[in-house]
From TrEMBL:
InterPro entries: Bact_Transport_Assoc, HGSNAT_cat. It comes from the Bacteria. Keywords: Membrane, Transmembrane, Transmembrane helix. The keyword Transmembrane helix applies. The chain crosses the membrane at residues 21-40, 60-81, 93-110, 116-134, 139-157, 177-195, 207-225, 245-269, 281-299, 314-332. This is Heparan-alpha-glucosaminide N-acetyltransferase domain-containing protein. Residues 16-219 form the Heparan-alpha-glucosaminide N-acetyltransferase catalytic domain. It comes from Microbacterium aoyamense.
Amino acid sequence: MTWLRSRWERLNGPQRIGGVDLARGLAVLGMIAAHLLWITEPFDWTDAATWIAVVDGRSSILFATLAGVSIGLVTGGRAPLTGRGLTTARLRLVVRAILLWIIGIVLILTGVPVFVILPAYAILFLLALPLLALPARVVLPLAGGLALVMPFVQVWLDELPFWRTVAGHDVGLLIGWHYPFPVWIAFVVAGLGVARAGVTRLKVQGWMLAAGAVLAFAGYSLGVFEDEASVWSADPHSSGLFEVIGSGGFALAVIAASLLVCRTVLTWLVLPLRAVGAMPLTAYVAQIVAWAIVAASVLGDTGDLAGFRDLEPFWPLTLTVLVACTAWALVIGRGPLEWFTDTSSRALTRSR
């Protein structure tokens, strides 16, 4: 009984921010949906038949923004760590980044036909390190500046001949270029900024929801008028200016809405989603590993995307993830990969 109580408190106690876990859970399940469902029409809020397309691109951007929130929270929240504490935190983030990169490469080697986000995630962790001592009043304007400038830089980078070579293709996989860090760092910095502003404060959550909704509306509305120049695109995974504005705003709004939901009794109804969000790395890796095993045994080819989608695996896999993560969180506690990365980072930096 005491064991179960301690696991319940780990998931629901004051040391966890339920709304952040909920948003992470939504991001993970959104990425699973983007991987496994046939999405044939772009998202149009006026057409309910297209609403499933909301997961395309936006789920991974939500995941990246939440990375910034998590980095901000573990490095002091509203009061950034300083001195030795900040140095130790930076070293632990370096170790986690290396481990994430290695796990990402292993997932790529399974041959499952998805663009694995973890290598890009690792690089984004490293790029955030110099910003950890900065307050919200500096970090949030920096995120806005990056969002406005970097899509133009990305167009130039994507035109480099190197990416059309065999070596360029391989390097692209190794650094997660499908989620290009020159642009995506804006999402991480935005997440870091709201953590520094005090993401648990009701006032901040209200401003996040309002600002995110405005940015999403502006980005997607202006994206309707885009021309052939990709720099202005609002299309998923385009890294165009209007995608960055629209989907970045969408991510902030979802995080804020999740935090507000978890201020109500609804927090108990979304407990399975919060459990997934409490172990996002485990859930993300598990769904790709399960995909590889099923595809290899049933289809004889882990790379057959159409064949695997035709098996209609989304609901069985999603329900399994929800049930397994909830049971693990309530009976065992921390997710296995979360435990591994945290324990490893602490062990390797213990002398500090």
